């Protein structure tokens, strides 16, 4: 028997004597669960944080982080783990955070709390600024007590009030919104620009920098579905959608959706 055959014979004899070694197990590394698709929608001094949890493991809840500092080690905004909302079937969790401050930049992220009270990796941070979101109706200037609106006060004021941010008038069948200083040179000097966008607010807020222009007009002719960017005298920004009109003559009114971001020099909605 040559050496090659002898080696094969020895291997076979060993296998028969000791048996085949067991196959190696298919080891799958346990990947820590984490949330995805975190989104933030704000309003006056509050925000709604939503996310998707694709984790199939049992969890103890969620921690929501709302910090004034990026990548902060602050404690969670919620004092105890958030169990999840009351509609788990839709696959999206929602958490409402109240008593926040308008005009302050917040960094928002979410982590899963495991049964042993350890945390998953936090989600990517979303930057948010709280500010009012309102549907308002303005009458023709000087024709009612609701002929002006203050973004900072989040309330109606008279058109000639020092806090007013815009007013409405109609001339020769054409509708306009204008800066208060057009009424009186001592009032606020706000600037306006019409945006080349006709969609919904959530689409605009994601892509505002693509559509924004330098706000330079002190009055604008407006029609239904126009989007207007208004820059205030202190360099804060509002987005206005013209929702429609009603009435004629002195009884004419304009309906507007207003989103105000009271953080100077930044377009964060």
What order do the helices and strands follow? HEEEEEEEEEEEEHHEEEE
Whole-number count of domains? 2
Q: Distance between termini?
A: 85 Å
Low-confidence stretches are 1-8, 14-31
How can the largest sheet be summarized? 5 strands, antiparallel
Task: Report on the architecture of this protein.
The chain has 269 residues and is mostly beta strands. The protein has 2 domains: 35-129, Immunoglobulins (Immunoglobulin-like), CATH 2.60.40; 133-261, no CATH class. The chain has 3 helices and 16 strands. It has helices at residues 3-18, 201-206, 208-211, and strands at residues 35-43, 46-53, 61-67, 92-97, 105-113, 126-129, 133-139, 148-150, 155-157, 167-171, 174-178, 191-194, 219-221, 227-231, 237-246, 253-261. Strands 7-16-15-14-12 form a 5-stranded antiparallel β-sheet, with no helix packed on it. A hairpin with a 2-residue loop joins strand 10 and strand 11 (174-178). The radius of gyration is 30 Å and the shape is elongated. The N and C termini lie far apart (85 Å). Residues 1-8 and 14-31 have low confidence and may be disordered.
